[in-house]
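[Q] Does anyone have a clean structure-token version of this?
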Amino acid sequence: MTTSAIRLIIGLGNPGPQYETTRHNAGFWLADHLADDLGASFSMEKGFFAQVAKARFEGENVIIAKPTTFMNRSGQAAGALMRYYKLAPDQVLVLHDELDLMPGSVKLKRGGGHAGHNGLRDIQSAFSSSDFWRLRIGIGHPRTLGLAEPVIAFVLERPRADELKGIESVIDRCRAITPALLRGDFPQATNQLHEANRV
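[A] Here you go.
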């Protein structure tokens, strides 16, 4: 299984101020930080159905995108960007919230299923492939957090203070491994990220 360096980063979330602080927008939060870290700023690109930030890293172009469609149509932007920049799925990193991980936990993964995540499902459909990288940002599940509410309501609410602290710590750790991802050094990125999980 060969790997390429990441050239397209797609943060997942829902557009609009009413969703900015919700759990489902954790991918947008990380995308904003990565753009800042790379000295890039977002601008609307209607042809890509996304806000796009164009950066350079060690002489290579890096694109960071936040789809302006709702979560379940994330593939529209992801597919348009991948085709335009002539990228392979394994050059794409998707940042998304993950119900199966608790706040404060994160996993880097290549390929696999969508586990019911509508954004991932639509990107897999647009790519005709699941062979892209994901940073899975733990937000917890209402059942594991002792909350009696449906998942659809949970993801569209603001995290509680202790949960937010955990998510923010994950975002910092993801920022720290981004240079390795942009160099294609996935073993280093994985070891660094998952070692932090055990601390």
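[Q] Thanks! Anything notable?
[A] Residues 36 and 53 are 10 Å apart (CA to CA).
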